[in-house]
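Shipment paperwork, digital attachment
Item: protein structure file
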Amino acid sequence: MGGERRNTRRRRYVRVAGLASLGLAGAGLGTWAAFGGEQTPRTGPPTASEVRSAADAFLGAWAGGDVAEAAERTDDTETAHAALRDFEERAHLAAQDLRAGTPAGARVPFSVRAQFVYEGARAPLTYDSALTVVRRAGDGRAVVHWEPRVLHPRLGKGKRLAVRETGTAPVDAVDRDGRALDARAFPSLVPVVDGLRQTFGRTAGGRPGVELRVEPPAATSADAEPPGDAALLSVAEGAPGRLRTTLDAGVQKAAEREVALRADASIVVLRPSSGEILAVANSRKGGPNTALEGRLAPGSTMKMVTGSLLLEKRLAASDEPHPCPKTASYGGWQFHNVDDFDIPGGTFRSSFAASCNTAFITQAGRVADEDLSRQARDVFGIGARWSVGVPAFAGSVPVEHAASKAAALIGQGQVRMNPLTMASVISTARTGRFAQPYFVPPALDHRTLAAARRPLDAAAHEQLRDLLRTTATSGSAAGSMRGLRGDIGAKTGSAEVIGQEKPNGWFAAWHGDLAAAAVMQRGGRGGESAGPLVAAVLKAVAAGR
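Attachment content:
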């Protein structure tokens, strides 16, 4: 019909304007026979009729998807075959319409309309190219002289068409029950979902944006690109995959609501039995993700780790006498309790519940420099390589000496934590065994979660858990935890920061199989700042709000 040819097997078309129209099956057999019926090799330049026939045969085979036949119609069958295969399989292009123009001697211009299809991404590609008909050595047939520019005019020697992914695959993140995690409702999750996209986009079934480019010779990486060589086509938007997370929309809602009422507040909520992260929230949106990546001194919440060390080494026992003087010196530094309180004739239980600094400083000379760092790593997993699913800081408790070692025992010095690590610490204190926090179940990508080298000693665990319960019911955390019943435990903390008028307030607590830790920077004492934040979230979850 009007010079149009259709291959019914592949539903592709070729239009040849100004040339004899030759079909792939049935039409134009006389011309094909003439082409293929040479008994002796011809010499000299191809005739006008041969140019038309050779060009039409090549373009027809290419448009019809017959790579072998198209390659056979060139003077370099092997190279042409590989290049035409690349066009389909590497560049993911299907030639749909090849329209030849008016020949100029042996040169035939033609236009290409192709369809790009790659993992659901689709886009048209149109361009102009040209071919030259020559007489093939050996049999004298008029064929297309093969050169890369026949496929595309920007293909030079050694260059190839290649698909590159742009960015990462998007994800539609949902909570543990399949509820959508809308950024408008949960603004704190914006960096979390972005991190999950980076890590799990492909695994979750998503597809990133893609572009088709000309790859230079001997490209060594996906980033290799000839100067000034723009993409031939681009499909910017990817297709999202569905990613089920450990987050709980109800817990996240409570956390978002509470941090919004406070300045510089960050909180993380975990499930102690498994390490599943249920909620993450920061009051400062668009700033640093303090909840997961903060590097702050944890103050007295560190006494959970130090207390476990003293209990395991039998340097303290819950109801045995333990010193808590107003001040204590070590390594040339003098350490004070808040308001210089003391507990004459007190026990380790009373010192722990009141968060007595000197009760720990007085033991500095009885522990080795590396003991606290080893305890944090081996029992609580601090500093290990955590596979959380998004960027996160797993804490740091370096080996320190002299006065700095004493400061580390009470969460000062060079000890650095964040709400994620402290929620993990109190979870380990509750269960006795470290469970690495995570956002996406490891079964999705078969990754291995970090593990501590050993559990907390059973006797020390029983005492530590009991001490945290005392702190929550009648100690420094009691005011915040009032109203929560059943299985509870908590620890307060205040971390001094040089040049800062008020300390950073810390609080970590559990209620059943729910644990949370929060920091309020410049908030003052933890029991009066971060404490009400943690308790409000735990109470809201308990009440189903």
